[in-house]
Design a protein that fits this description.
Pfam families: KH_NucS_shadow. Helix content is about 55%, strand content about 10%. The protein is mainly α.
């Protein structure tokens, strides 16, 4: 299971809408490693001292790697995190996560980061099975 959803939240989701704050709180509690990585890059991206902030340290284990994959591969989770932090997230491999201020999306740095060439450059034999 990707998220540890409290019964009350699951019940409300089955009968209607839940708000972003409840959803993001569920993500924060369910995927603490992913939350820490995303909140770190988002905070650094918000400082305005660089065009983006990234995290390129491999996770300490498979559970943490799984959290990043769940968070960034899910449109709902990724979108909730982006709305919560006010950034655009980019994900290149099993652990390289970047946060871009919304104003930078579409700019040269962003386009280069999400390009096929950047994806290829950020691969290596040891990452093949990550």
């Amino acid at each position: 299971m990707s998220l540890d959803v409290p019964a009350a939240l699951l019940s409300r989701a089955a009968t209607g809408e839940i708000d972003d704050a409840e959803f993001v709180d569920c993500v924060r509690h369910s995927l603490p490693y992913a939350w820490a990585v995303v909140s770190d890059v988002a905070a650094r991206a918000a400082t305005g001292t660089a065009q983006f902030a990234d995290h390129a340290v491999p996770p300490p284990g498979e559970a943490e790697r799984g959290q990043l994959l769940r968070a960034l591969a899910s449109d709902a989770i990724r979108g909730g995190l982006e709305r919560h932090f006010g950034v655009k997230l980019a994900f290149q491999n099993c652990h390289r996560v970047a946060a871009f201020p919304l104003a930078a999306v579409g700019g040269d740095t962003y386009r280069r980061f999400v390009s096929p060439e950047a994806q290829i450059r950020n691969q290596s034999p040891e990452l093949r099975d990550c």
